[in-house]
Amino acid sequence: MARPEIDILAIGEPMVEFNENRSSHQPVYRPGHGGDTSNAIIAAARQGARTAYFTHLGADAFGQQFLDLWDAEHVARGDVVLRDEARTGIYFVTHGADGHAFSYYRAGSAASLVGVRDLPVGLVESAKVLHVSGISQAISTSACDMVFEAINRARGAGRVVSYDTNLRLRLWPLERARAVIHSAVAMSDIALPGLDDAEQLTGLQGPEAICDFYLALGVRIVALTLGKQGTMVAVPGEKRHVPARVVTAVDATGAGDVFDGAFLAEWLRVGDPFAAAAYANAAAALSTQGYGAVAPIPKRAAVEAFMKG
User: Fold this and answer.
1) CA 200, 206, 211 angle in degrees (round to 5)?
2) Which residue has the higher pLDDT, 24 or 84?
3) What is the mean pLDDT of residues 225-233?
4) What is the mean pLDDT of residues 169-174?
5) Are 190 and 282 in contact, with CB atoms under 8 Å apart?
6) Pairing between strand 127-133 and 56-58?
7) Residue 202 — pLDDT band, cuts 50, 70, 90?
8) Do 57 and 80 touch, CB atoms closer than 8 A?
9) Which residues pair with 161 in a beta bridge?
């Protein structure tokens, strides 16, 4: 039986989140859900895209929570596997004067054990867009190979590949990260780097030079996020700065992931990367007004009202 076509498929490592809330006298760690590509696919779903996710999880309470979460968010997860011999990864978020910091407990997670043979037949080919990230490849050698296989399948089926560089030097050394990420981006259609990561990966300074670097690798669209400065969007022959939306932020934990999901959903809807970046900037800004990676992700109606206001 043929698979139903979906708009966006994401692959990666979801993680249970414990996010510090300093609103009381004693810090309280509130449970939630995270993981860059999981956050992104939920953001896309909340903008109205047809979505799916693939990973392996521990056969534990946390793994079941993710299945329940994706069901509630209308993210298809029929190919996700629960593994008895492995666990679901977790992380803690603390907040201070310099922003937020992460502490990860993910070694040996079920997601890191996924390999090429675990990628379901026909799953990638059923999606208009495949979205993966540097973290998707950094968690293990087998996961890295699996992501490359997914990219190759997407390319072979004429699908679009989206790649967020999302550099995490705790997971792998910079030279390996550069080699793998540059190779993956060169096989992609859309690059979604952040400025700080891109400066380390490319060795370049300045948004224009970084955008030119990624365009030279062969991508069709670069959306380089600049934090409070907004986003620079580049296509062959044109670059534009898309301003950020100003809000009072309390937690920017998953803002970049929200940008990714909202950008892809809106780009599929309107076909204009510059308009998609303006929409994604608004969605990402709204997501910083609450604690946690998932709970504050806005739905389309809220984003559209914010843009009109």
Assistant:
1) 85
2) 84
3) 95
4) 94
5) no
6) unpaired
7) very high
8) yes
9) 130
Taking the C-alpha atoms of residue 48 and residue 102, their distance in angstroms, rounded to an integer, is 30
Query: What gap in Å lies between CA 136 and CA 111, rounded to an integer?
Result: 9
**C-alpha span between 146 and 111 (Å, rounded):** 11
Decide if pLDDT at 251 tops 80. no
| Amino acid (one-letter) located at 2 | A
Q: What per-residue confidence (pLDDT) applies to 241? A: 98
Query: Are 115 and 40 within 8 A, CB to CB?
Result: no
Domains within the chain, CATH numbers bracketed: 11-308 (3.40.1190.20)
Q: Is the pLDDT of residue 293 over 70?
A: yes
Q: For residues 27 and 14, what is the distance between their CA atoms, to the nearest angstrom?
A: 24
**Structure tokens of 238?**
């044109």
Q: Which residues of 197-212 are buried (b: 16+ CB within 10 A; e: fewer)?
A: bbbebbeeeebeebbe
Instruction: Compute the Cα dihedral for 309, 72, 118, 50 and give only its sign.
Output: negative
Helix ranges (DSSP H) in the chain: 36-46, 61-72, 134-138, 141-156, 174-186, 195-202, 207-217, 255-270, 273-287, 300-308
Say if residues 185 and 148 touch (Cβ distance below 8 Å): no
| Rounded Cα gap, residues 14 and 111, in angstroms | 8
What pLDDT sits at residue 200? 98
Amino acid at 10: A
Contact 41, 69 (CB under 8 A): no
Q: Cβ neighbours of residue 90 under 8 Å, at least 6 residues apart?
A: 15, 16, 17, 18, 62, 104, 105, 106
Q: Is the pTM of this model over 0.70?
A: yes
Q: Of 195, 207, 205, which Cα lies nearest the Cα of 164?
A: 195
- Residue showing tokens 């009072």: 248
Q: Which residues pair with 43 in a beta bridge?
A: none
The rounded distance, in Å, linking the Cα atoms of 89 and 86 is 9
